[in-house]
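Our consortium's second objective concerns turning raw sequence data into structural hypotheses that experimental partners can test. To show how far this objective has progressed, the report includes one record in full. It was chosen at random from the queue rather than selected for favorable results. The single chain below, 474 residues long, was entered without modification.
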Amino acid sequence: MSSSPCVLGIDLGTGSTKALLLDSGGRELSVASVPVRLSRPRPGWVESDPEDWWTSVRAAVAKVLEAAESPVGAIGLSGQMHGVVLTRADGRALRPAVLWLDRRAESSVGAYRSLPPATCALLGNPFIPGMAGPLLHFMTSHESDVLEKADWALQPKDWLRLRLVGRAGSEASDASGTLLFDIRENTWALPVVEALGIPTRLLAPLGFSAAVAGPLDGAIARELGLPASVPVAFGAGDTAAALVGTGLSGAGSVQLTVGSAAQVVAPRERPDPDADLRYHVFSSAVPGMWYAMAAVQAAGVALSWAYEMLGATSCGGTDSPVFIPHLAGARSPSMNSSARAGFLGLELRHDRADLLRAVFEGVAFSIAEAAGALPELATTSELYLAGGGTLQRTWRQLLCDLLGMKLLVVENPNASARGAAILGGRSAGIMEETSSAPPVVDEVEPEPRAHESLAVAFERWKSVEASSFDTPLP
């Protein structure tokens, strides 16, 4: 057994919970993933039961502890951003958690647009119905009885921390994704909260990502098989945690992460929100830093959907139909939550393999369109590539050829869980802060002829996508 304690990272994702164990030097000892269920009680609604989250946490932690070389000395957290969990002070959720994919609060986006411009400017971000602010505004009218019973409105990983330490809190990287946060001052935007009629008492006090939020509760420690009073860090939202996990927390680099969603992320020393709100700006897990993020709402989600629905295992040729991948609305650059998905240009000759190819291309085109909104993309010739949705080499090559940029494949597909563990280790003084470049295990170079062919297809795709916005379904 090692004399140095190890650190545990828990990443509460949309479709699964991951637990990851690192030694004090940052070497990965074990990782485990346990699926979590999503429910869709009505069209456009997406929820998850926090008790199912807790079951998945217990299972994932139990698996990784089998490889522990020493006692766990710290815990860090990351989790899916946006959405909202209404909970009592003891961590009992009052209703299923509403997730970032949810569109029930589309009408509440209008309430944001009616705010005075100076008030909206505090947020520095586009208005997305799946964020906590619009959802809470929706609930003030439709679920006021539940809202009155709630002690806190939390982000998913903040709910998990409440369960672990018995104390509510949040931090800037997750809070900045709620549309209730002053992006420049790094604090709650109380003028926005009050103007929307959302009870300010629901907002948790803010800490720092790499600070200790509290010791692990004794009863919870016994339930998880962990030492009592282990320090638990505040942690970070999954994208901010992934930047820590891959070592890209400083300005000057751009990273593409593909998971359930996809994000093109550029760390910044100043927030500098986009005047046209084509992309997001959130606070980093590193104090005094921010990151710009162009987002694609359905990336891995769309690919998984296609595999399940089509039953195809290989892709067809390049002469495939066009697929618009907005299965859960569109984010960057259009920020159109009412956008829908669909195939166009279908012919009798097309088979399942052609449709699968169209889905891969459609997701890739959507990523390229989102990436083009970031000014940082014009000043770099290479992108770091991370995330569990980037493991297929043919998929990597498609992205590389389309973007026309070298892709530097980052070593760890579990970047968010790793970042969570690192933040936990830093909070307890077990791990030191480093700013080295992420380890690269593969480099993918674009093929010029493929890039030219995809560029033509990309222009065709953009024209079809633009016209689809003009004819929304009732």
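The partners drew two points from this record. The chain has two domains: 6-238, 246-470. The longest helix spans residues 448-470. Both points have been shared with the crystallography group to help prioritize constructs.
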